[in-house]
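Can anyone check this?
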Amino acid sequence: TTPKRNKRKMTTFVIADTVRTLSYCKKVPLLALAIFGSSFFLFLGAFIKLNVVPYSIATLNISEIGGGYLFSTCSVGIAIGAYVAGKTTKQAGTLGLSCLAALGTSIFFLMIPLTSFSLTFTVINLIALGFVGGLYIVPFDSYIQTKSSEEKRGQVLATNCFLSFAGVLLAPLCLYIFSFVLKISPSTGFIAIGTLNLIIF
């Protein structure tokens, strides 16, 4: 896209800029919701990546390296889901698919402990979780790009990135609280995050 020659100077007050941009986003129907939905996706992804290794060791009795490979199956599912979302969404800037996928994400999170009796079923479940994750993120990101004005799009995308990586930062904190404060198992951690996602859905 062509530069818009914005006269604003770069500022070190990132939080203030983020708040200002979110105030603008609230004036555009569902834009702030799309930003928070997109950011929450990275929180979920980061939590899965961090929790799947202790889950693999404690519940599946496989090695730490095996747990790392297990997460890659979820990544494959995300790639397939994102591709399918791009191919099947008839109109850019609609969020219905993201809403359905958010429900699916909760279901597959809650199913992770139920498939722990079999590594094969766990892999299938993680691929399915990634798949609905891909369906979840693409409509949100396309909505953000299509519904923000040309003059504000750069600021909106920057705010989205800032909040997304804030979500990534919150994931290890959440895992620490689950593991060391609440003393819950990695399996129960997946149930807790699935329930949280269901509430947000």
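Reply from J.R.: I decoded it. Residues 93 and 147 are 7 Å apart (CA to CA).
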